[in-house]
Write a structure and sequence with these properties.
- The structure holds 2 protein chains of 2 kinds.
- Chain A is 35% helix and 24% strand.
- Chain A is α/β, with parallel strands linked by helices.
- Chain A has 2 domains: 180 residues, P-loop containing nucleotide triphosphate hydrolases (Rossmann fold, 3-Layer(aba) Sandwich), CATH 3.40.50; 67 residues, no CATH class.
- A 6-stranded mixed beta sheet of chain A has the order 5-6-7-3-8-9, with helices on both faces. A 3-stranded antiparallel beta sheet of chain A has the order 2-1-4, covered by helices on one side.
- The longest helix of chain A is centred in the C-terminal third of the chain and has 18 residues.
- Chain B folds into 2 domains: 56 residues; 200 residues, Orthogonal Bundle (MetI-like fold).
- Helices cover 77% and strands 0% of the residues of chain B.
- Chain B is built from 12 helices and no strands.
- In chain B, helix 4 packs across helix 11 and helix 6 crosses helix 7.
- Classes of the chains: A alpha/beta, B mainly alpha.
- At the A-B interface, strand 5 and helix 3 of A face helix 8 and helix 9 of B.
């Protein structure tokens, strides 16, 4: 285990005990994520990609193997506020304005009023939401709400950003736009990002590393290092390099029987 | 006008039906009276007017009830034992005190139940059982019992109101405090928020709609509790006492007047809670 790794998983396993018997959500996962990487987790439903993200966030406890975040246990990492988490839904509090929603973690972590104001301004600029400070969530579109939730995850400057299908509920046009914005944000902030998706183009477009997973039990079938440049215009998706990586992702999914009827 | 018109139409229909019913229900007694007075061949219009002007009608006509309310409030001094304003104030004060105590107790119990699994399993059956006991049975025990140790007046009556009104609040608030979604709670966990922070920043605001819904029920039954408790101590006064003495003496007009005051009081109290709800909703950025 290298201590420079942001996330390091060794032989990680997680089994849920249910009334119908044990469900193996993760089995023998070995993975190292280095600082500054953009790692996508892709696979069909039930492959454990969200569970793995939740395990990093200490929202689930592994039942075997080891997992460290910045060399700490997930519990220590959570308590030292090592990561920001973006959920599938924006999960904004409807009774708080956008700026108050972004202030939520800052209030909990005890930042002063002045620091709160400065950080709210900075993160709202970062996600292009300036001018919407006083709006309530219901006054914003779905894409803007999810941007606000990203701003909230960025507000307290954790180096690690965990994103669980953040754009899954959005239409493709908004999704393309937010994808390119997310890349710019990643480039500017130099954060390490773990990103769960089940869109192959999204995974290839965003990532420096793509982790292909397959279900029953949830396991890693392939880890693909992307050699696409950091600077990625949207039309990079038509280049042969891009298509080659996408083909390999698809191949990895097929090898994991992800396309078989009984797994979908 | 579009909103007022239907209400006025319904009100008009009720009044018409009421006057008609008063003729029918008071007719037998009026016929007896007329026979005794050897009045025969009374035209229907005169007969109808007679049924609407009896001293102790089976069903008083609306104008008789309104007249009684006027006489017993505006036309009387407040301190008079016959004043409905005086009795209404007695009922209102124990209703309000009982409502405040009941809401506080209900919220406190809900907070404990939501945060403590042992309390969740042990308290809830008792809370439900408490409401299966007829209030008419325990009200005299509480009022008389507390009277024996020198506690009289508003407090014992308010305790009955509290006993009734805490129930909808505790049930509603348990649901309300548990209403945040799993990801909203997960979010708090990723911030390593304390239980206290999660409560004030998430559970409490999320429970506001349920709090107001249960307070509306709570304040209405708090009034019922106050009226019932007054039945146990006729010397203490209150709208309940007016109902009781009215029925002892066959003073139907007095009963109806007291009923109207009680109903109006309940309506106003529920409206006040509703107004408070709208203020809070606006401050919490609810969609207009």
């Amino acid at each position: 285990m290298t201590t420079s790794a942001v996330v390091s998983a060794q032989n990680l396993g997680l089994t849920f005990k249910t009334n119908d018997g044990d469900v193996v959500a993760l089995s023998d996962v070995n993975l190292t994520i280095d600082k500054g990487e953009f790692v996508s987790f892709i696979g069909p439903s039930g492959c454990g990609k969200t569970t793995f993200l939740r395990t990093i966030a200490d929202l689930e406890r592994p039942t075997s193997g080891t997992l460290t975040i910045n060399g700490q246990t997930p519990d220590q990492a959570r308590k030292s506020r090592a990561y920001g988490y973006v959920f599938q839904a924006p999960a904004l509090y409807p009774w708080r304005t956008i700026e108050k929603n972004i202030a939520l973690p800052l209030e909990i972590m005890g930042y002063s009023q002045a620091q709160q104001a400065q950080r709210i301004k900075r993160t709202m600029d970062l996600v292009n939401l300036s001018g919407f400070e006083k709006k309530y969530p219901w006054q914003l579109s779905g894409g803007m709400q999810q941007r606000a939730s990203i701003a909230r995850a960025l507000a307290f400057d954790a180096d690690l950003l965990l994103m669980d299908e953040p754009f899954g509920a959005l239409d493709e046009i908004v999704r393309d736009h937010l994808n390119s914005e997310l890349l710019k944000l990643w480039d500017r902030t130099q954060k390490t990002i773990c990103f769960v998706t089940h869109s192959i183009p999204e995974a290839v477009y965003l990532s420096t590393k793509i982790v292909v997973m397959s279900p029953r039990p949830g396991r890693v079938t392939d880890i693909i290092e992307s050699d696409l440049p950091r600077e990625r215009p949207l039309d990079i998706r038509e280049t042969p390099e891009f298509l080659a990586i996408a083909a390999r992702v698809r191949e990895g999914l097929r090898a994991g029987h992800s396309y078989d009827e009984d797994h979908v | 006008m579009n909103r007022v018109l239907p209400i006025l139409t319904v009100l008009f229909a009720i009044v018409v039906i009421w006057y008609a019913a008063a003729i029918g229900m008071n007719a037998p007694w009026q016929t007896t009276l007329n026979t005794r007075a050897e009045l025969t061949d009374v035209p229907f219009t005169d007969f109808a007017l007679q049924t609407w002007a009896q001293e102790r009608p089976v069903l008083p006509a609306p104008h008789q009830v309104i007249g009684e309310i006027w006489n017993a409030t505006v036309a009387l001094e407040f301190n008079s034992r016959r004043s409905l304003a005086y009795h209404g104030w007695i009922t209102l004060s124990s209703t309000l005190l009982g409502f405040v105590l009941g809401t506080a107790l209900g919220v406190a119990l809900a907070v404990v139940i939501v945060h403590n699994e042992a309390a969740n399993r042990s308290l809830m059956p008792w809370i439900i059982a408490s409401q299966t006991i007829p209030i008419l049975a325990i009200a005299p025990m509480v009022v008389v019992g507390l009277g024996a140790v020198g506690i009289t007046g508003t407090v014992p009556r308010a305790l009955i109101s509290m006993y009734l009104s805490f129930f909808p609040v505790v049930v509603g608030m348990v649901k309300g405090l548990r209403s945040p979604e799993a990801i909203q709670l997960d979010l708090m966990r990723t911030y390593d928020a304390t239980t206290w922070q999660t409560f004030w920043k998430l559970r409490w605001p999320a429970a506001m709609p349920m709090l107001f819904a249960s307070m509306k029920v709570g304040i209405a039954i708090s009034l019922i509790g106050a009226v019932v408790s007054e039945l146990s101590n006729a010397a203490g006064g209150g709208l309940g006492v007016r109902l009781l003495t009215g029925s002892y003496n066959g003073q139907t007009i007095q009963i109806w007047a007291a009923l109207f005051i009680a109903a109006a009081l309940a309506a106003v109290l529920v409206m006040i809670v509703g107004a408070a709800e709208r203020v809070v909703n606006t401050r919490m950025g609810a969609r207009p």
